[in-house]
Amino acid sequence: MSDSTVVGLHHEEQHHPELLHHFAEPQQQRDAASLGMWIFLGTEVMFFGGLFCAYLIYRRWYFGDFGAASKSIDATLGATNTAVLICSSLTVVLAVWAAQIARRTLLIGSLVITMLLGMVFLGIKGKEYKDKFEEHHVPGASFSFDHVAIPGHPDQYANPRHAEIFFALYFIMTGLHALHMIIGLGLFAWLLYMAWKGRFTPEYHTPIEIGGLYWHFVDIVWIYLFPLLYLIDRHP
Amino acid sequence: MSMATTTIQPVERENYLNKEYGVGSWLFTTDHKRIALLYLISITFFFFIGGFFALIIRLELLTPASDLVQPDTYNKLFTMHGMVMVFFFLVPSIPATLGNFLVPMMIGAKDLAFPRINLLSWYLYIIGGLMMLHCMLTGGVDTGWTFYTPFSTAYSNTKVVEAGLAIFVAGFSSILTGLNFVVSIHRMRAPGMTWSRLPLFIWAHYATSIIQILGTPVIAITLLLVAVERTLHLGIFDPKLGGDPLLFQHLFWFYSHPAVYIMILPSMGVISEVIACFARKRIFGYSFVAFSSIAIAVFGFLVWAHHMFVAGISIYAALVFSILSYAVAVPSAVKVFNWTATLYKGSIHYDAPMLYAFGFIGLFTMGGLTGLFLAALGIDVHVTDTYFVIAHFHYIMVGGALMGYLGGLHFWWPKISGRLYPESWARLAALIVFLGFNLTFFPQFVLGYLGMPRRYADYSHMPEFQVLNVLSTAGATVLGVGYLLPMLYFLWSMRYGKPAPDNPWNAAGLEWMTSSPPTTFNFEEEPVVTWEAYNYDELDRGHKQEVKVVG
């Protein structure tokens, strides 16, 4: 950071346009926003935690049925999506870095690529949902999962009722994750707009930081969802 | 404003109430004090709706036969009484009103860390509340406030999904309040306001917020699963389809037991403030009272399955949960003993808030001790789903949480409204509430121990229970009068009450150093704290010397 920015920072402390009235100084505002996001992510862990708990219990009870149901999902698409999200995490970090060193083009570029990767993820997810719909694997009245062998036991069929629980959890968990992705895209559209207007400076880029925290969290949820839902009892 | 302008009428100082007028200035406010008042009005509305249901329940039970309402209607009445009172009154009661109003002031801040999120939380509460109202007006719900599956997801013909989603939405308002408090307490404290100088009200709200943050998301996902399962006929909790109803109960009580501490902990915070002020003493064992709040929040998460002793959990799990439930009694008792020790050699004043505090200590102790009966496996099996359980948790939630809420409302009313309430009426109301409460709920302990089950509209095969039920209904009437009175004289005082001085109780705490009512940003300049909490020795020193000279 050059000397002039340090001087600028001092000047900014008096009349920083982004400093809300009830904070004493920008540092306090940054710390509050960041702590707030971390706590919010804590609530998200508990929110998804209830689902993971249900998943783990039924996976233990109905392991064979879950394995058969899991095998019907396209693991290649899931793996592609995992790679897509990991790449988007990188571009989010780049965006934060670009904001810190005041490189506007890099910032805007990183945000745009992040959003594009997010949309690619949702597109692939939509394709997977479409496949499941066509195979009648969506829980409900038209659900059917008859005569599907349990992996490793070619003579045993999976219980459709138990497979339906797997698919119910699959759709609820990935659906809630996708909802979080959509909210993330909205958040990033707003960040992009703010970045376009040049609102972020090395002194003030808290929204990029906490938006990035949120994006990383949504990625991490997927990192757990992928092996748990796609890779049950798969053998080459 | 210069002194010269105060000629005929004293010109009212600018404060948060008279700064702006108009509906918009309230609906779009980000001032924590105005949001607290918005909450106060909304939760009072729901309190009277829940109270109305309670009234009909008590009238129905006046006679053994089911003659006032149909049994189906009765099921809806106790369900909606529970849902409204728990999720739309008790959970937001103290945190969203007194907490919202006082937390920033007590820590010496201008506002909560996220004022707009604070307003958002009220709007979420209102959306949830309107959904609940719509649900109740268009048929209601009959599952019991516990939503037990598979009845709620497969068999009930009432509006389960709408009620569940209403509570889902209201839950997020609770999460946001807790999040705001934790961040504010960590990041917004005034210079010199160290953790060991925080009022115990703040410690209690910190503990409450932890539960709101970690518990509420679990009930949210649980109710979402119930709604999805009911809508799409899935089998996550339905044993007929391979699901597990016990899983629902675990998830439900993982929140709903700690939720009891969301209700009682803030009340304990109020009592700590009131006892210290009206005994004119520093609270005995400050750090023990502070950390017992945290201990209750932590232990509270480890006891949920004591609601499921007869539901078919393993006997070993039941033993562990029984022992852990006993453990909660330790920090609770620490509080009660410390409050009592604070009274010892205090100079005690019997103002209305203190009467509520006394009521709280007595009723909470009874509620807590009967909780130990229920934590004991043998007794619990005997009295499960009887009026003993009803009486126990009403002693905690009404005798405890509500007494603290009313006591706190009286204590801080001069600060909130800038007016004094009529003291003798308030003392009378406190007495009526205490007597009415005991008359309502003590007979229910006896009823339950004798075997009267809860949730029955008709007890005509056991008419010997009628006397105790008549007593209970009579008590509920007295209690109702006790609740109406404060509402009437609080409203009266807003127009006709004497203007309140800044510190009418000569109480310690930063909130009393602001004007009554406070200005929008609370303090003229940022306070710097150089004293310990509850420094009543210092506050009363001048007064004591005066007495010496006279004597």
Average residue-wise pLDDT of chain B: 94
| Number of helices, where a helix is a run of at least 4 consecutive DSSP H or I residues of chain B | 17
Order of helices and strands of chain A: HHHHHEEHH
How many DSSP H or I helices of chain A?
7
Structural class of chain B: mainly alpha
What is the total number of structural domains of chain B? 1
Task: Please state the oligomeric state of the protein chains shown.
Answer: heterodimer
Number of domains of chain A: 1
Computed Rg of chain B: 24 Å
Show unreliable segments of chain A: 1-14
Number of strands of chain B: 0
Instruction: Please tally the β strands of chain A and state the result.
Output: 2
State the separation between the terminal residues of chain B, measured CA to CA. Answer: 42 Å
Strand residues, percent of chain A: under 5%
Look up the CATH topology of chain B: Cytochrome C Oxidase, Chain A
What share of residues of chain A is helical? Answer: over 70%
Give the largest chain-chain interface (CB within 8 Å).
Answer: A-B, 36 and 44 residues
CATH superfamily of chain B: Cytochrome c oxidase-like, subunit I domain
Task: Tell me the name of the CATH class of chain B.
Answer: Mainly Alpha
Explain what this protein looks like in three dimensions:
The complex is a heterodimer of chains A (236) and B (551). Helices cover 75% and strands 3% of the residues of chain A. Chain A is mostly helical and 236 residues long. Chain A has one domain: Four Helix Bundle (Hemerythrin (Met), subunit A) (Up-down Bundle), CATH 1.20.120. In chain A, a hairpin with a 2-residue loop joins strand 1 and strand 2 (153-157). In chain A, helix 4 (75-100) runs antiparallel to helix 7 and helix 5 runs antiparallel to helix 6 (160-196). Chain A is elongated. Mean pLDDT of chain A is 91; it is low at 1-14. Chain B has helices spanning 23-27, 32-60, 71-90, 93-106, 115-137, 151-155, 160-187, 200-232, 245-279, 286-300, 315-343, 352-375, 377-383, 387-417, 423-450, 466-496, 536-550. The longest helix of chain B has 35 residues, at 245-279. Classes of the chains: A mainly alpha (236), B mainly alpha (551). The interface between A and B is large, with 36 and 44 residues.
